[in-house]
Design brief:
The mean pLDDT is 92. The protein starts with a strand and ends with a strand. The longest helix has 10 residues. With 119 residues, the protein is of the alpha+beta class. The protein is 15% helix and 32% strand. It has one domain. Strand 4 and strand 5 form a beta hairpin. The chain has a seven-stranded antiparallel β-sheet with strand order 1-2-3-6-5-4-7, covered by helices on one side. The protein is globular.
């Protein structure tokens, strides 16, 4: 598993997902700095990555997926983006086009609808 720096697109997606307030958000935002990434190795990968943050600032989130995003691809098919947190640390950015087809265009980050998964 080759670790690498986050691309600017990956970093911008994470920052967009962390744009709403919820418990642990500030700690997760701090974890983006210096965070490394690796491809998941899945054949049906739409850009999903595993995340390897600096483990100094633990986030106390209420759910494994505290926030996710929804945006449409250029063909109108929704793309779901889930932010997984494990043991208080960024773990995975999961990106899935809901019809299973490849993405047609880059994700339009400003159009991502951020959805909080809180009780």
């Amino acid at each position: 598993m080759n670790k690498r720096d986050l691309t600017s697109i990956e970093q911008n997606i994470l920052e967009r997902l962390l744009s709403k307030d919820f418990p642990g958000k500030d700690q997760l935002k701090n974890q983006i700095n210096g965070c490394l990434a690796s491809d998941t190795g899945d054949d049906d990968n739409y850009g999903s990555i595993y995340l390897f943050p600096d483990r100094k600032s633990v986030a106390h989130v209420e759910r494994r997926v505290p926030v996710d995003g929804l945006v449409k691809d250029s063909d109108g098919i929704p793309i779901n983006i889930l932010l997984h947190v494990e043991d208080g640390f960024l773990h995975e950015l999961e990106i899935t086009k809901l019809n299973g087809a490849p993405l047609k265009a880059s994700i339009n980050i400003p159009e991502i609808e951020v959805i909080l998964n809180q009780d």
